[in-house]
Amino acid sequence: MSTTKKFAAVAVGLGLATLSACGSSGGGSADPKTVTLVSHDSWAVSKSVLKDFEKQSGYKVRVLKDGDAGQAVNKAILTKDNPQGDVFFGVDNTLLSRALDNGLFQPYEAKGSDLVLPQYRVDQDKHRATPVDSGDICVNYDKAYFSEHKLTPPQSFDDLIKPEYKNLLVTENASTSSPGLGFLLGTAAKYGDGGTSGSNGGGWQDYWKKLKANGVKVVDGWEQAYDEEFSGSAGGKKAKGDRPLVVSYASSPPAEVIYASPKPKTAPTGVATGTCFRQVEYAGLLSNAGNAKGGKALIDFMLTKEFQDDMPLNMFVYPVREAAQVPAEFDQYGPQAKNPETMAPARIAANRDQWVKSWTSLVLK
Amino acid sequence: MLELAGATVRFGARAALDAIGLDVAEHEIVSVLGPSGSGKSTLLRVVAGLQALDAGRVCLDGRDLGGVPAHKRGVGLMFQDHQLFPQRDVGGNVAFGLRMHGAPRGEQASRVRELLELVGLPGAASRPVGELSGGEQQRVALARALAPRPRLLMLDEPLGQLDRSLRERLVVELRQLFGELGTTVLAVTHDQGEAFALADRVVVMRDGRIAQSGTPLEVWQRPADAFVARFLGFDNVVEATVSGEAADTPWGKLPVPQGSRQGAGTLLVRPAGVRLVDRADGLRCTVAARTFRGTHVAVQLQPDGAPRLEAACALRDAPAPGDVVGVAFDAAEIAVLGGPGGA
Amino acid sequence: MAVPVAFFAVFFAYPVAAIVARGLKTDGQWRSGRIADVLTQSDIRHVLWFTTWQALASTALTLLIALPGAYVFARFDFRGKQVLRAVVTVPFVLPTVVVGTAFLALVGRGGLLDELWGVRLDTTVWAILLAHVFFNYAVVVRTVGGLWSQLDPRQEEAARMLGASRFAAWRKVTLPALSPAVAAAALMVFLFTFTSFGVVQILGGPTFSTLEVEIYRQTSQIFDLATAAVLTLIQFAAVGAILAVHAGTVRRRETALRLVAPETTARRPRGAGQWALLGGVLASVAVLLVLPLGVLVQRSLDTPGGHGFAYYRALASDDGGAFLVAPVTAIGTSLEYALAATAIAVVIGGLAAAALTRRDAGRLVRGFDALLMLPLGVSAVTVGFGFLVALDEPPLDLRSSWILVPLAQALVGVPFVVRTMLPVLRAVDGRLREAAAVLGASPWRVWREVDLPMVRRALLIAAGFAFAVSLGEFGATVFIARPDNPTLPVAVARLLGRAGDLNYGQAMALSTILMVVCAVALLLLERVRTDRTGEF
Questions:
Q1: CATH superfamily of the domain spanning C309-536
Q2: What residue in B sits closest to A1 (Cα-Cα)?
């Protein structure tokens, strides 16, 4: 009996000792020579570029990829008192207000901020968020389907509710998917808010009613929409997807080419350029960062030409810095939309949660 | 050597041991005898350290064992159904205690050999225990218990599951063996024959208390009370009033030995003291039944208006059921016990 | 006992409490009014209703399909039985992300049903129900079949000699003996389907949502921690109730039954009826269990250049794509984590089972038996987030330590260890331990010399299950796994999350590897099955 207890006590002691030993290796950047970047799963950078930064700055970069974009933001907010890193990258304009309102970032005006294209600049008085990249959420179409059916692919939001495109579109749940939310915000930017009550109040609610009547399909995530339901992607083809229209990114067609082996001459998919919503991703210096100095250096680095040039082919996004190079494949297979819908962060912040709620009961229930 | 004082164990409201006091001397063999539920197994478990005391104490060689866990008490216990370790062979079972005490390998082997020879199973070390007969298992269990040379060996119904002839033979062997080894033994059993054959001293238990303690002869000749007498298998027990060398009983006036306790008491008439005589003489009885007992015949006799009597008859003298006989009593086979229910 | 209690307090109760408190506490004040607010929302009530009825329907359907299977596995001898028993168990330990994808390929668009008859079941509730059958078939076969195979058929024969018809004999003798096992299996299936996450998320689409899925959405996406906390509490209460009922049936099941060695009760099927039954069971296993797995393998081999191993080769290349490392290293990482998790689960679960077997174990300790099952019923996302929120201060700042993943996985493994070990440990005669103690063995030696040799096989099985479950754990791991050290399921999910043929094919190839590892582990376990295993 007493021996059992002794044994148990020893085991607990040993366990805790082991755990604390492990614990000391992690945590925020206690080591002043390491800077930790917290990001979402899509973060990617060429190794050589990162090496250059490490060599120039003298910091070692540790990256924690923390799920999809929404998840990563929420996790960062939950752990903000004792953050897992120094810099967070990957909060976009649709969720930026959540990050700022919850005090995720501390102010820092990055070197090179003056070189950011004006349309991407935000939070100009406090400088808590630094724009890093942009992308467009647009409807993609399956070229083969439309040529086979001798149909012109849709080009605008208005086209999507036309009878010839009935039962062709698949989109994502606005409450769980970042492109889904972007698409909803795009329609809200285009048609305005019709209010919650009006059966015919117009606005995006009216548009979505028509979209629903025209057979829009909603799935939970981008993977399922793009890789399972969409007939134009590699995964979708294999899964015998039967929706030739999908809400995805303007950079998806180039990705289809770059990731295919052997590489086709032209992209199998195209972009409906009148259905785009501009998404901007930001980085920020985390409140309570252990290595704020290193964090600042890392944010500066994200605005350098070297990083901005390297970024597009790694993350399939567009640079925000003046005169950064857009890869040839992008222009060749999926040029950036000329006039995407945009929305001021303040308006998104004021309406997002309410819109998502009414969208859910309007479209899903 | 072993000393229990005021040892009490309660299971809920019931006392399994009720303030037991018991001494066992060095080299003594003590048998605890009692019906099931009398607390005799609990007694062993208390000494072994498998059951905690609610009150009182247990001392071994003058040292209080309270708080000493079972594995440090240095006593041996042979379980009722042996509890051999099924996944070990005979040798592994016997050597177990030696290994626990850190005996060197060579010593283990020689001691196992020695013990198996002692219990009459030479060369059985590599046999699996599953193949052993009941008697063989019993011998292995004994060898296993003896191997670490316990200061006190306890046996729980050591021969309980064996058949009669084997039991009778083994009990003699055991007594001889313990005598040779000088082992101190505390055994419990519900079989009086086994207890009497094995022990130097018999302790009879009833409801968690000691009803009587003495040499086998003392207990056999003068059971302390009606309970002990009945437990020993005597049925001719009646209330009586003793006056001088005679006692008034439902069976009439019976002779009692000289110096018997006077006044109201309990009377035991051993079957051998019930003699059949001519029907005209003595107490008139009808033969109700008779049972063949090997060396004699037990005859159930029904007197008029009195409790039944049992008589032991020689084989050829036994009357047939329905016969009417007379009964006389022999003072040498009659004992006056303590007061009713008292010790 | 102290070790398991401490483990659960620190790595389960504390993190879950922390995340619930974060949702329900503002400025240090509990806001219990939130509970009523949430419960009056029609969306939430709809979720509660759907969660309950789909779990009931899944349980009924699973029993309907799996009970004949349990009978066939228990009473019939046929070639390949061992392999098949392992095969039906594989789905139970597969990560949901793999199963969801594989299942879509069966009942979804372009799936087999679609090709043959033009039937599609995806985004209908049928897809969810069938996938639940797929997952839980093994629970019924192992729990019920395990006992069935040990019931003495002579008792039924005795009843027939007394004039009972074949059916009456079965109903009066076998069914009562079996019913506690059926009840226990049904409750386990109900528990697993009530808390179903991955299957509903992948196959259900946005319209179907269980409590667990809703908790995930509210926490991870909508960031409404208050609603998530309320839902967590509701699920906690429901799971607690299910476990309490389950504990009752377990106790009834441990009442004495005449059990015999399984080998003596199985025989070759006789007559057309029995062969038809065997055939039917084999066919249902083939369609419901083997086919989705087969589709997975087929897709992993179906490269643009015809069938081949191109995707498998691609796993070894470090292309800087979805990972910082080559996907193939995820296999090594997974195995290391799973081994660590298994070690933790076996130690914690073994100690807990040993403590629960002690004869003087009180009511409190026996209650702990049911508590150990709770991690199976608590949202993985709650646990994952809870870890992040709670384990953030030294000496327990484990958030970026590798041990976090095995700890979370062990949480799911412990219940399996306990449930496998308990019946075996309880079957060890306590007096054997006393015999050893009297011969001078300390409690630790008693355990090593008496218990261990008798439970070694059960321990091996428990470890195997803990290993397989840890290997497949996805919900919590995905939140806490380090990006440079993804486990197999996390790597699969990440590959699926990227566009392109190659990523998709690699995901299928990794899934296939994961499935094979699980299958091999289970096949090895079939060789060491004990006479009295627990219910898994």
A1: MetI-like (1.10.3720.10)
A2: B69
Is residue C423 within a helix (H) or strand (E), and if so which, with residue range?
A: helix C404-427
pLDDT at position C318: 60
Among residues B123, B73, B138, B133, which one has the least CA distance to residue B101?
B73
Question: pLDDT tens across A257-286, in order?
Answer: 887 778 888 889 999 999 999 999 999 999
Chain B residues touching A6 at Cβ < 8 A: none
* Residues of chain C contacting residue A221, judged by C-beta atoms under 8 Å apart: 497
> Quick check: C494 pLDDT over 70?
yes
Query: What is the tally of structural domains in chain B?
Result: 2
Is C278 near chain A, with CB under 8 Å?
Answer: no
Does residue A356 belong to the interface with chain C, where contact is any CB pair within 8 Å?
Answer: yes
The CA distance from C385 to B277, in Å, is 99
In angstroms, what separates the C-alpha of B83 from chain A's closest C-alpha? 22
Specify the pTM: 0.71
Structure confidence at residue A200 (pLDDT): 55
What DSSP character marks residue B315?
A: G
Note the pLDDT tens digit of each residue in B171-213. 888 898 898 888 899 999 988 888 888 999 999 999 999 999 9
Please give the order of strands across the beta sheet that includes B55-60. B14-24, B2-11, B55-60, B63-64
Number of residues written out for chain A: 365
Size of interface B-C (CB pairs under 8 A): 62
A252-269 per-residue burial string, b: 16 or more CB within 10 A, e: under 16: bbbbbbbbbeeeeeebbb
Range of the domain at B104: 2-227
- For C206-210, C244-248, C384-388, which range has the lowest pLDDT when averaged over its residues? C244-248
Q: Which of B176, B206, B227 is the last residue of a domain?
A: B227
The answer to whether residues B221 and B312 belong to one domain is no
Residue B21 and residue B166 in one domain: yes
3-state SS class at B338: coil
| Secondary structure (3-state) at B144 | helix
Query: Which residues are bridge partners to C39 per DSSP?
Result: none
Measured between CB atoms, does C402 come within 8 Å of chain A? yes
First to last CA, chain B: 26
Is the domain of B178 the same as that of B311?
A: no
Q: Judge whether B342 lies within some domain.
A: no
The full DSSP string for B145-160 is: HHTT--SEEEEESTTT
- CB of A124 within 8 Å of a chain C CB? The answer is no
**What residues of chain B lie within 8 A of the CB of A1, using their CB?**
69
What domains, with CATH codes, occur in chain A?
28-134+280-331 (3.40.190.10), 136-278+337-364 (3.40.190.10)
Q: In 3D, which of C246, C271, C251 has the Cα closest to residue C371? A: C246
- Give me the pLDDT at residue A180, please: 93
Give me the CATH number covering residue B209.
3.40.50.300
What residues of chain B, 53 to 92, have a C-beta less than 8 Å from chain C?
69-77, 79, 83, 85, 87
Q: B299: which residues sit within 8 A by CB, 6+ positions away? A: B276, B287, B289, B290, B310, B311, B312, B313, B318, B319
Neighbours of A251 (CB within 10 A): 26
Instruction: Examine the pLDDT at A181 and tell me if it is beyond 90.
Output: yes
Distance CA C147, CA C252 (A): 13
| Mutate: best of C116, C400, C402, partner A, most A CBs <10 A | C400
Asked if C207's CB is within 8 angstroms of A256's CB, the reply is no
The CA distance from C402 to A23, in Å, is 9
CATH number of the domain where residue B326 is located: 2.40.50.140
Mean per-residue pLDDT, C135-148: 84
Write the pLDDT tens digit of every residue in B269-283.
Answer: 998 888 888 888 888
Residue B247, pLDDT > 80, answer: yes
Most confident of A61-70, A151-160, C37-46, C122-131: A151-160
